[in-house]
Amino acid sequence: MPALPTEEQVAYMLAHPDDNLIPNIIACTSICGIASIVFLALRFSSQRLVSSRGPTLSDWLLIIGWVFFAVFDVCFAMTTRYGGGKHIIYVTDPRMLQILNLANENTYCYAMAFIKLSLLSLYGSVFTSKRFRYCVWAVAAVVTTWAVSIATVGIFQCTPIAFGWDPTIPGGYCFNYGLVVLIGGIINIVTDLTILCMPIPLVWKLHVTRQKKLLLCFTFAMGGSACIISMVRLAFALEVGSTADGSWDNIPAGLLSVVELMTGILAVSIPTYRPLYRRLVEGPSWVKQSIQNDYASGNRNAEYHRSFGREGPRSVSVSAGRVSVGTRQGISVTNQIELTVHTSKGGSWVRVPDEE
């Protein structure tokens, strides 16, 4: 329960008027906000190299998550106008500061939820096992319930709500919101670890080299960086909503929340960066091979494309259930197989009659 500062606490605040975390808030929100935009831009640039289709379900969920993150980032930065980053006795507008804090608590929950749902959607598009799909839906349900519950409890942590910024209201009270944050943080970490471990057994069954299996596991495990930040953030949980100097004591948890969400956006995007990495490393004459699932439309047909060199004379495109037409002439193979003989005449492929 938030309380009025004691005489000793007030004396300390008066003795340290220069204590200021505002530069930390501005620097963190600015850097993380710009970085999140870069991560999204790299994700879509990488996907454009191997597919001309629009955003997938995973992309849309991540975009929604980024919107919530952007609102959280801006609101957290705006708290500095009303005393955020300073001791409580220097707060200029307690009401606006508390309203922004409530907005931060809600947008954080929904941003984290949509980021996780984006990764789960990506899992569902890559792995088609029915049992694995049930696990994806179960974890998605837990994540959604967690977000809605914590966000709702955050709004009504004080009765009346105005008691959150005016503890002198007669009859008002707040429950121990720090305990709620602690429990919510533990559930958040458990779902993080669950999501990280889910694809490992399926990756290990793939018919690829051991090196590629380890690389895939490492790629998915990059999300562990956000999980580590969540664990560190948990150390500040009990202070949230219970300290008498919330405008100062809650700032470290807020900074970690910004970094945590930014890292989550990066972790969800890293598995999509491989085409861009190969394009940058191997240059214009790269040899690219990609297996894509048409998970945006629910079509599980795989598409395989390979191009040879910058000025290669031929290309091969194989797709299940449809014909893929390229810009250059070459050999097109579908699931409707017909063996024919072709010869190159005048720069184009010409079918040789059977009688020849």
Automatic annotation (TrEMBL):
The chain crosses the membrane at residues 21-45, 57-79, 110-127, 134-157, 177-202, 214-238, 250-270. Keywords: Membrane, Transmembrane, Transmembrane helix. It is a multi-pass membrane protein. Pfam families: Fung_rhodopsin. It is found in: Membrane. Residues 47-279 form the Rhodopsin domain. InterPro entries: Rhodopsin_dom_fungi, SAT4-like. Belongs to the SAT4 family. PANTHER family: INTEGRAL MEMBRANE PROTEIN-RELATED, PTH11-LIKE INTEGRAL MEMBRANE PROTEIN (AFU_ORTHOLOGUE AFUA_5G11245). This is Rhodopsin domain-containing protein. It comes from Monosporascus cannonballus.
